[in-house]
Design brief:
This protein is α/β, with parallel strands linked by helices. Helix content is 32%, strand content 20%. The strands form two sheets. It has a seven-stranded mixed sheet with strand order 2-1-4-6-7-8-9, with helices on both faces. A two-stranded parallel sheet has the order 3-5. The longest helix is centred in the C-terminal third of the chain and has 16 residues. Bound molecules: NADP nicotinamide-adenine-dinucleotide phosphate. The site of NADP nicotinamide-adenine-dinucleotide phosphate has 24 residues, from helix 1 and helix 2.
């Protein structure tokens, strides 16, 4: 599959590496933007407050299947939207999903070491299912459907619970799998 990743950091760069290893053709897009008209799927993996700016520099994204992996850290979704994913959908008008926002990028290289296949939540449009589930399975996750795109706000907020667990009682568990500065 031809995939474009917008944001070349831990998530965008990390998933790009894994997808390339799985045989996909990946284009990495940074702040300079690009035309992604060729892509069959687009991943958005920029800071949660930078989604509008990032999409401003991406041409050819209309009607594309887009996976939004962003989390809102100390910022709100764009005005008028309850989630970044719904904002993305309003900009692209194509099949849209929220996924890869709950799992830690620091653990991408260790997915295969897990005793059982790690799950990865996704919610979004039915038309995105084939692409999202394949791109999850191709990096070693078992995709778990979490409902329509209206649930994206809940999935974005779920991140706050995960972070609370890291800082709270589950800290020791997470520290065993990765040092806190890598999560
Ligand atoms: N790290 C995780 O474990 C994790 C897990 C799940 C979800 N997330 C979420 O996924 C997103 C990316 O996280 P990350 O850890 O990959 O962050 P990161 O390592 O800081 O990477 C963010 C990337 O976005 C780029 N960027 C910033 N503004 C941009 C713009 N306007 N246009 C295009 N690219 C832009 C940055 O470019 P520069 O290098 O030029 O600044 C950088 O390459 C965030 O929303 C984060 O909350 C992170």
């Amino acid at each position: 599959m031809k995939v474009a990743v917008v944001g070349r950091g831990n998530v965008g760069g990390g998933l790009a590496d894994l997808w390339e290893r799985a045989g996909h053709e990946v284009t990495r897009v940074g702040r300079e933007g690009a035309d992604v008209a060729d892509a069959e799927a687009v991943l958005v993996a920029v800071p949660g407050g930078a989604v509008a700016e990032a999409l401003d520099n991406v041409q050819g994204i209309e009607q594309k299947t887009v996976i939004d992996a962003t989390n809102l850290v100390g910022v709100d979704p764009p005005e008028g939207f309850s989630s970044n994913a719904e904002f993305v959908k309003a900009r692209t008008n194509g099949p849209t999903a929220k996924s890869f926002n709950i799992n830690f990028a620091a653990l991408y290289d260790r997915i295969g070491e897990a005793g059982s296949t790690p799950s990865n939540l996704w919610c979004g449009d039915e038309e995105a299912r084939g692409v999202v589930e394949q791109l999850n399975r191709d990096v070693g996750y078992e995709p778990v459907y979490a409902g329509p795109l209206e649930n994206a706000a809940a999935q974005e907020n779920f991140f706050k619970l995960v972070f609370g667990m890291v800082q709270g009682g589950m800290g020791a568990f997470f520290y065993r799998i990765a040092p806190p500065d890598q999560l």
